[in-house]
Specification:
The protein is mainly beta. About 5% of the residues lie in helices and about 30% in strands. It has three helices and 23 strands. The strands form seven sheets. The protein has a six-stranded mixed β-sheet with strand order 1-15-12-18-10-21, with no helix packed on it. Strands 2, 3, 11, 16, 17 and 23 form a six-stranded antiparallel β-sheet that branches. The longest helix has 12 residues, at about 5-15. It is globular and about 55 Å long.
């Protein structure tokens, strides 16, 4: 059997066997466009909120406490709340973002590319994001999603979620709901792509670009998979993609256009949030982030350094400060 046929066979097995090991491949290409793809688009969702939201993929090495009280260290409001209404501080979490979808075509096709859209908020592209390495994880999704209300029923406020200040503003009860019952089996992880450069956006290399510059907003990012191996999509099966910034760095992250209360009927937004522990381990805000008192809180906030261990953390809709249970990204699935 040739190497090419072995690759094709392995991908086929990954789509049909829950015990197959994920494989890592190079050759991913990332491109920037002013318009969404048109040719060979098999499904898409193009609705988004037009406010100032900054739902972001983030892998920033600057630690920040999520906490509205006093601390000598960098912090921003708010933490989450316990059953007594007390605010609980935690360390801001690393984040990968993606979307589940159902392949609704009647014929089998091969996945060629995934396109998403940059956001419209105040922190669209952070200052050191340009040229950073990117990866995309493709998964098959099985099981039936069911809502867990996180202990906050319709008679009470959520424990976390927008507008985050539970003491001063109402947080609707569904804002901390998350989904259970789905299993994510990795098909393949593709690396080698890079976030567009400053020149791709029409700037020069030496320009200092504000993260809310109008020239950044609304562009489309297309993640084109290599020609081999090929991933075949099966009718009426559920899949997911998760976009990742490979390496941690200062001011590294970018926002994606999305609709918080989305209406895509065949899927939902997902995220990988820190090390996957929920709720986040409470932090001691009187101590530095790396102090031994914050060892578990620090670990909970960040991805493992080992990339394979990171990709082994199953995504979900749960997240802090916000969940993706009701959210849909703007996305396009291109096949061949």
């Amino acid at each position: 059997m040739t190497k090419k046929n072995k690759n094709l066979l392995f991908i086929y097995l990954c789509l049909h066997c829950a015990t197959a090991y994920p494989q890592y491949y190079k050759g991913l290409k990332v491109s920037l466009d002013q318009r969404p793809p048109v040719q060979n688009v098999v499904l898409f969702y193009d609705k988004y909120d037009k406010g100032q939201g900054n739902t972001s993929i983030a892998h920033d090495d600057e630690n920040i406490y999520k906490w509205s009280g006093e601390t000598p260290y960098k912090h921003e409001s708010w933490g989450y709340f316990d059953k007594e209404g007390k605010e609980v501080p935690y360390i801001k979490r690393d984040r990968d973002l993606g979307q589940t979808f159902t392949y609704t075509q009647t014929d089998k096709k091969y996945l060629k590319a995934i396109t998403v859209q940059l956001g419209f908020g105040t922190n669209v592209v952070r200052s050191n994001m340009y040229g950073q390495p990117l990866s995309i994880q493709i998964m098959e999704v099985t099981g039936a999603a069911r809502v867990n209300n996180n202990g906050s029923d319709s008679t009470m406020e959520a424990f976390h979620g927008f507008p985050h200040d539970r003491n001063g503003k109402e947080i609707l009860s569904m804002r901390d709901d998350y989904l259970e019952g789905e299993t994510y089996q990795t098909v393949a992880i593709f690396s080698g792509g890079r976030f567009p450069s400053k020149s791709d956006f029409g700037f020069t290399k030496g320009d200092t670009i504000a993260p809310n510059d109008a020239k950044l907003k609304g562009h489309y990012l297309t993640f084109t998979l290599p020609s081999e191996p090929r991933i075949r999509l099966e009718p009426n099966k559920n899949y997911a993609f998760l976009i990742m910034i490979d390496k941690k760095g200062k001011e590294v992250g970018f926002a994606l256009a999305n609709e918080y209360f989305g209406s895509y009927p065949f899927g939902h937004g997902i995220r990988r949030d820190g090390n996957g522990i929920f709720p986040p381990v409470p932090a001691n805000v009187s101590k530095n982030f790396t102090h031994s008192a914050n060892r578990k809180a620090y670990q909970a906030a960040h991805f493992p350094k080992n990339f394979k261990k990171r990709t082994a953390i199953s995504p979900s809709t749960n997240g802090y400060p916000d969940v993706d249970t009701w959210r849909d990204l703007v996305f396009y699935v291109v096949c061949e």
